[in-house]
Structure formats: structure tokens, C-alpha cells
Design a protein that fits this description.
- By secondary structure, this protein is an alpha/beta fold.
- Among the domains are: 33-112, no CATH class; 602-771, Leucine-rich repeat, LRR (right-handed beta-alpha superhelix), CATH 3.80.10.10.
- Helix content is 39%, strand content 11%.
- The strands form two sheets. The chain has a 15-stranded parallel beta sheet. Strands 4-5 form a two-stranded antiparallel sheet.
- Helix 22 runs parallel beside helix 23 (586-597), helix 26 (670-677) packs parallel to helix 27 (701-717) and helix 27 runs parallel beside helix 28 (738-749).
- The radius of gyration is 32 Å and the shape is globular.
- 40% of the residues are buried.
- It comes from Lepidothrix coronata (blue-crowned manakin).
- Keywords: Leucine-rich repeat, Phosphoprotein, Repeat, Ubl conjugation pathway.
Length: 772
């Protein structure tokens, strides 16, 4: 209690100082620097924010104060705290998120409790990244009318919007989300949308986020009509169409009023329900319909073409494919007294709320501008087009998206208004069904602003072909910007090299391609019927600069990789992970292919590839005059080697002046090999090595200290002239003698930047026994 007394007294005094600042604020900011320095820690965050300019003019930094605020209020250590450039932004951004989600009580600290301070409003300009989770409570709060100014601030500051652990939502939540996405993406600055960990995704919600991220929303939708920014952009012709549609709706209401009076609920009930559900979709959405046999999960969509031809069609006679029967998915509204007329009749800007998908999957005939300008003479024909091409419409092919030539295999989106879209889409651990993949494929086909696409653990399986069809269509757009594609999953539907060839043949503009799988889904040669082998596809000259392949323990055949290398003359980085070498000559063939086909290759990485019997090839790589970074990660380099092999490695690196980075994690170096590696920096060395990674190598504190002493001796002999700048020591046994380890690290940090961690080496006892 005695200890709390002075702290409480200080808090009261500081709060009094902060309260008295209002009238004297201008005079206070004019104080000399040494007086201002003593005043800043006594301010609330509202006053501290306002003092930034004065502190800067006085040559003072508020960073230590914001860092102390973080420690006192957040009471956690942020990841990579040593690399945080601005603690003010870091604090206010986290503060915003915690207040929004109800994690932080502003009354818990006097520095947060200022009657001038609106937590969300004043911190929102500093928020560049925001995560919404669970039931989207944050979205509901931000879309509320009283937070209008907060949303306006976020529209200018927010760049990354994340969704995590989402749950199913009702129509009011979805409406709030639509308002939020429309403002932050369509009329805002959000450039990246990421979704994480959604084991059983709500299809309606998922498609809503994807489509609005792609910039699609119905131009005549009630939301767009109410949005002031959209209203400013509306053309006179749109207004005319809007008025005509409103007239049609009024007339229909009058016709149905008599029926409502005959025992049905009042029309106002329908209007209220309609207004509340304008942005909602029924649970029985088209994406949940049972597809026809040809488009089952065993065989994904077969878009009949990207360039020209017919729209995707269903197997004849299948009931779910009939254009009229398909519409039975709509819910019947007991509050609606009017009869359902033609499916497309009277579709005004306040179109039926159930069809969220209408604006994404409508197939508009060439020359037509949208839904509202259809004449009644072509209504029946257009209705069939729109219905048969909805997302629930299965495709004709069995497996894979085989193009047969014909107009648009990807559904047209002409009926939707196109807004601004994001440039990065990331989906992590979100299962995508065949129908959802078709949805994504449709969106991708014209998503020209997309620059980065990450699909990680989505259970794509054979549906990867459907995604590829959308990418192929996208690649033909002159304004296409997609340059980075990363695909990872548990199961591989086809051999990795075959998939790489498929992707590059569909999208040669890629600069970065990463393909990663854990397990093979089926034996080679047992692919679904009708899926042509991509190994025969011709790869055009590509722009590929970085290629990463993680094989599901597949053999690495250079003959399959060679066409990719030949088409990728600009390749600068190549990473091969978890591959097996089918024969002793395979690695040599790969090195010859790399030398012949990739003259610009700068970085080469092998991970979990057994190189114990390939010492000659390892030395050849270390001699390469072009490579600047080489990684042998968990490659068992010294499993069956002799002391001479280590000496050859050291001498080779000493003679190579082009190699800048050598990474050897997980190769069981042990103490004695680490000490020997210090000779790379000896006086007679011409090496330019800057970075050395010896993580996970059973290194103990005494070995590290001996390495340090030897390194210091070489530096002294060279008169302090050394280019070595970074040493990585993750997951070594430095906890076995803390005092020795600390001495070694202290002396090393005087020479280079050292990155290590606190790791419990007792878990690696079995590995230690195998090295002894």
C-alpha cells in the first residue's frame, strides 16, 4: 500500500497538469526544450498526440514515452519489438483494435482517460492494419452511425484488412460488413484482404468478402444508391434508369396491395423486411446447390473457353441444371402477397435481397449494359442466360478446365458495377468447395488490379484447374498486374512439376511462383479422366524471377524441370524443398541445366534434400561465380563425410568472392565444425561472405566462444577489415551454460549482428546422442 501511494499521487498530479493544459496549450508548446522534456511524460495520450509537433520542433523524441505507454497499458511484448520503427503508431494502432473489440478499458489508466479524447476517433488515423474476427462485432461497431467519422478516417489510413476465425452471421451483420467493405475498399485505401482459419466457412459470407474485395457490387443496389460517394458518380442515364425502375416497383406495389388486404400481412411488413435484408442471402445459396454429375468434386469445372464460344452448360436432362427449376432455391416469403412473375421482371435497384450472387454471376449479353435496361421482348431469353450461368450451374467437363474454344468460359460480370478493388488476396486455412472455386475463378478472370494471390491450405485438390482457368482469362487482360502466386496445400492433385508447367503456361507474366504440398493425393498416372497432362503443355517465355517448389517427397527429375528453366531466362531465385534424387547423376544434371538456362540465378536453396552422397556437386555450387546466396538446409551434408570435405568447403568459399550468404541450418555441424568455419575469414581469404546461418546445428556455448575467439584473431590479422555482418544461431544448445553463452554473444555482437533465441535444448537430446 505504501508503494502505491506515491504512484497514485503522481497520477493525480499528472492528470491535474493534463487537465489544465487546455487554456494554456499554445503557451506550453512554446516552452524551451528542457522544460518540455519534463512535461511530456505527464500528458494524457490526447495531449501527447497534440504535442508531437512541438516536440519535433524542439528536437525531442516522444518514442520512449510511447514505448513506456505500451509496457504500462498493453503489458505484452510485441513480436519483433527491436524492429518497430514508430512506437507511437504501434501503440495507437493496437489501442484502436483493443478498444474496438472490448479488450481494453480506457478507464484503467489515467493517461487514457481524457474527456477530450475519443478512443476510436483519435486513434483511427494511425491504423493501417485491422483484424476482424468471430461474429464481426468490430464491423458492426464501425458501421454504426455514431462512428461515421471513424470510418472516414479508416478509409484514408487502412491498408490491410484481415478476417480471422469468422463465424456465421445474420443479415444485420452482413449489412454492416457490406457498408464497411464498400467504404474501406471501394471508396477507401485498403489494398490487401487476408482471411485466416475458417474451418467451416459460411459460403454467403465468404463470397460476399471475395466479391467486394474484387470490386464488384450491383450498381443499382440500395447501398450504392444511399452512398454519397456513389451518388456523386452516378450518370444522368443511371438516374433515369433508377427512376424508371422505381416507377415499376410502385406500380407493382399498388397491384399487390389488394392481395395483401385479403388476409396477408401488411405491405409495410414486406418493405421493412426487404429494407433490412437488402444485403442478405439465403442459406440455400446457389453455391450450396447439388452440382450435376459432370461437375462433382471428383472433376471440377470445365469452362468451355476463355476467349470465345458458349457459356458453361450442364449435362442434358439434369434437373438441377434446368433454368427454371434452378430458381426454386429462392425462399418463399409469407409476407409477400404478390405473385412471382417472370424471374427477371421488375428487377429495380432494390432487387430481391436473396440474390447476393446476382451481381457476381449474371451473364449479360454482348451490347447490354446491365439488368435495368433489358426490354421485355428479350426478357425470357435473358432470364435463361442469367439462370443457367449462375454459380450453381455445373460445367460440362469432368476433370480439369479444358478449353474448347468459344466465347466466355468465365461468367460475365457486366451486370455489376465495378468499384475499386484490392491488390492482394490471401486465403489461409479456408476450405474451398468446387462451387466456391468457380466463384473465385469468375472473380479472378477480370481482377486486373490483383498483384498478389496466396492460396494456402484450401483443400483445392482437382479444383486447382478451375482456379487456373480464371488466371488464364486474367492473363489476357492488357492491364493485368498479377505478379505473385503462392499455392500450398496438404495434398497434391498432380505432380508438382506438372502443376508448375500448368501455371506458367496459363500465366507467363508471373514474377514469383511458389508451389508447396505435403503429401501426394494419388499415384502418378492415376489422374481424373479427361484431365490432360500438363507435362506436354508448351511454356511461353516467362517473366519468372523467383520459383519455389516444395515436393511431397516426389523425385526431382531434371527433364521435367528443364522446360521451366528454359522458359525462365530471368530466374534469379530457385528453392527446391523436400525432393528426392532418383539417381546419383540427377543433381549433376540439374547443375548443368541451371548453368545453361539461368545465367541470372543469384539465390539457390535446397531444403530437406539428402545431399550426403553429393559432395562433388556441393563443391561445384560453392565455386559458382554468379550465385550470391546458397542454402543447404537440413541436407545432411556431413552425415557420411570426412574432415577433408569440410576443409574443401572452407577453401572453396575462401576463393569465391561473389558469395555473400551461406546458410547451413540443420546439418549437425557441432562445435568442432563451427570453429573450423571461422577460417573462412582468415587473412589469406578473398571471401566476401556477409551472412552465415548455423541454426539448429547442435552448437554449445564453449564451441561458440571458441569460434568467437578465432574469428576475433582473424579480424585482428586483417586490420579490422572484414565484411562479415550477420550470424544466425537459432535453436542451438546455448542454454546449457548461460554464462559462457552470454560472454560469447557479447563479444560476437561487437563484430557482427547476432540473431538467436531462447530455446530448450533438452528437447533435442536424441539428436545430441546421434552426434556424439
Amino acid at each position: 500500500m505504501a508503494a502505491e501511494g506515491p504512484r497514485s499521487l503522481f497520477a493525480l498530479s499528472a492528470a491535474a497538469v493534463s487537465r489544465s493544459m487546455g487554456a494554456l496549450e499554445r503557451d506550453v508548446w512554446a516552452l524551451p526544450g528542457h522544460l518540455l522534456r519534463g512535461l511530456l511524460p505527464l500528458l494524457t495520450i490526447f495531449r501527447l498526440e497534440r504535442a508531437e509537433g512541438a516536440a519535433r520542433r524542439a528536437g525531442l523524441s516522444t518514442q520512449p514515452i510511447w514505448r513506456q505507454l505500451w509496457d504500462d497499458v498493453m503489458k505484452t511484448r510485441p513480436p519483433n519489438s527491436e524492429n518497430i520503427p514508430c512506437w507511437r503508431k504501434k501503440f495507437l494502432e493496437t489501442f484502436f483494435s483493443n478498444v474496438l473489440h472490448g479488450v481494453l478499458d480506457v478507464s484503467s489508466d489515467w493517461r487514457l482517460n481524457d474527456h477530450h479524447f475519443s478512443p476510436l476517433l483519435h486513434s483511427s488515423p494511425h491504423v493501417s492494419q485491422l483484424t476482424l474476427c468471430n461474429m464481426l462485432q468490430g464491423a458492426v461497431e464501425l458501421a454504426a452511425e455514431h462512428n461515421h467519422k471513424v470510418l472516414e478516417n479508416l478509409a484514408g489510413s487502412l491498408r490491410i484488412l484481415k478476417f480471422q476465425h469468422l463465424l456465421s452471421s445474420d443479415q444485420s451483420i452482413r449489412r454492416s460488413l457490406v457498408l464497411l467493405l464498400h467504404r474501406l475498399i471501394h471508396h477507401g485505401s485498403v489494398s490487401q484482404v487476408s482471411m485466416y482459419s475458417w474451418p467451416v466457412p459460411d459460403t454467403v459470407l465468404l463470397v460476399l468478402i471475395l466479391s467486394m474485395s474484387a470490386g464488384f457490387w450491383r450498381s443499382g443496389n440500395a447501398l450504392a444508391y444511399q452512398c454519397g460517394l456513389c451518388r456523386e458518380d452516378r450518370a444522368p442515364s443511371q438516374e433515369l434508369v433508377q427512376e424508371r425502375a422505381e416507377s415499376g416497383r410502385d406500380a407493382e406495389r399498388e397491384r399487390s396491395s389488394g392481395e395483401n388486404q385479403k388476409g396477408f400481412p401488411e405491405a409495410s411488413v414486406e418493405a421493412d423486411a426487404h429494407l433490412n435484408s437488402v444485403l442478405s442471402v439465403p442459406r440455400s445459396s446457389p453455391l450450396q446447390n447439388q452440382p450435376c454429375e459432370e461437375a462433382s468434386s471428383e472433376g471440377p469445372c470445365d469452362h468451355t473457353s476463355i476467349q470465345g464460344g458458349s457459356s458453361p452448360r450442364c449435362g442434358s436432362g439434369h434437373p438441377s441444371c434446368h433454368p427454371v427449376l434452378r430458381k426454386t432455391r429462392r425462399r418463399l416469403k409469407p409476407a409477400v402477397g404478390r405473385k412471382r412473375r417472370c424471374l427477371r421482371r421488375s428487377r429495380g435497384p432494390y432487387a430481391d435481397p436473396e440474390d447476393l450472387y446476382d451481381f457476381v454471376f449474371t451473364v449479360a449479353r454482348e451490347g447490354n449494359s446491365g439488368l435495368l435496361d433489358k426490354t421485355s421482348s428479350t426478357e425470357d431469353e435473358n432470364t435463361e442466360n442469367w439462370t443457367s450461368s449462375s454459380p450453381g450451374s455445373p460445367c460440362t467437363g469432368r476433370a480439369g478446365c479444358k478449353k474448347r474454344g468459344g466465347p466466355a468460359g468465365i461468367f460475365s460480370l457486366k451486370a455489376a458495377h465495378r468499384f475499386r478493388s484490392v491488390s492482394t488476396l490471401e486465403l489461409f486455412s479456408i476450405p474451398l468447395t468446387g462451387e466456391t472455386c468457380r466463384t473465385l475463378s469468375n472473380l479472378l478472370s477480370s481482377w486486373v488490379s490483383l498483384e498478389n494471390l496466396v492460396l494456402s491450405y484450401n483443400g483445392l485438390d482437382a479444383n486447382i484447374c478451375c482456379i487456373l482457368s480464371g488466371l488464364r482469362a486474367l492473363s489476357r487482360h492488357p492491364g493485368c498486374r498479377l505478379r505473385v502466386l503462392r499455392v500450398s496445400d496438404v495434398f497434391s492433385h498432380m505432380p508438382c512439376m506438372e502443376l508448375v508447367r500448368c501455371i506458367l503456361s496459363a500465366f507467363p507474366q508471373l514474377h514469383t511462383l511458389s508451389v508447396s504440398f505435403d503429401l501426394k493425393n494419388q499415384p502418378e498416372g492415376n489422374r481424373p479422366e479427361g484431365n490432360p497432362s500438363c507435362s506436354e503443355v508448351e511454356i511461353p517465355e516467362s517473366c519468372l524471377e523467383q520459383l519455389e517448389i516444395r515436393f511431397p517427397r516426389e523425385p526431382l527429375h531434371t527433364t521435367f524441370l528443364l522446360p521451366v528453366l528454359k522458359a525462365s531466362k530471368s530466374l534469379q531465385q530457385l528453392s527446391l524443398d523436400s525432393a528426392t534424387l532418383p539417381c546419383s547423376q540427377e543433381l549433376g544434371l540439374l547443375l548443368e541445366a541451371l548453368k545453361e538456362c539461368t545465367p541470372n540465378l543469384k539465390k539457390l536453396s535446397f531444403h530437406d534434400v539428402n545431399l550426403a552422397e553429393h559432395q562433388k556437386e556441393v563443391l561445384l555450387l560453392l565455386q559458382d561465380p554468379v550465385l550470391q546466396e546458397i542454402t543447404f538446409s537440413f541436407c545432411r551434408l556431413f552425415e557420411s563425410s570426412t574432415a577433408e570435405f569440410l576443409s574443401e568447403i572452407i577453401n572453396t568459399v575462401k576463393r569465391n568472392s561473389s558469395l555473400k550468404s551461406l546458410k547451413l541450418p540443420g546439418n549437425r555441424l557441432g562445435n568442432h565444425r563451427l570453429v573450423a568455419l571461422a577460417d573462412i575469414f582468415s587473412e589469406d581469404s578473398s571471401s566476401s561472405l556477409c551472412q552465415l546461418d548455423v541454426s539448429s546445428n547442435c552448437i554449445k556455448p564453449d564451441g561458440l566462444l571458441e569460434f568467437t575467439r578465432k574469428l576475433e584473431g582473424h579480424i585482428q590479422q586483417r586490420g579490422g577489415q572484414i565484411q562479415f555482418t550477420h550470424l544466425r544461431l537459432f535453436q542451438n544448445w546455448l542454454d546449457q551454460d548461460t554464462e559462457t553463452a552470454q560472454e560469447a554473444l557479447r563479444r560476437l555482437k561487437a563484430v557482427c549482428s547476432v540473431v538467436n533465441d531462447s530455446w530448450d535444448s533438452s528437447q533435442a537430446f536424441a539428436d545430441y546422442i546421434s552426434v556424439m
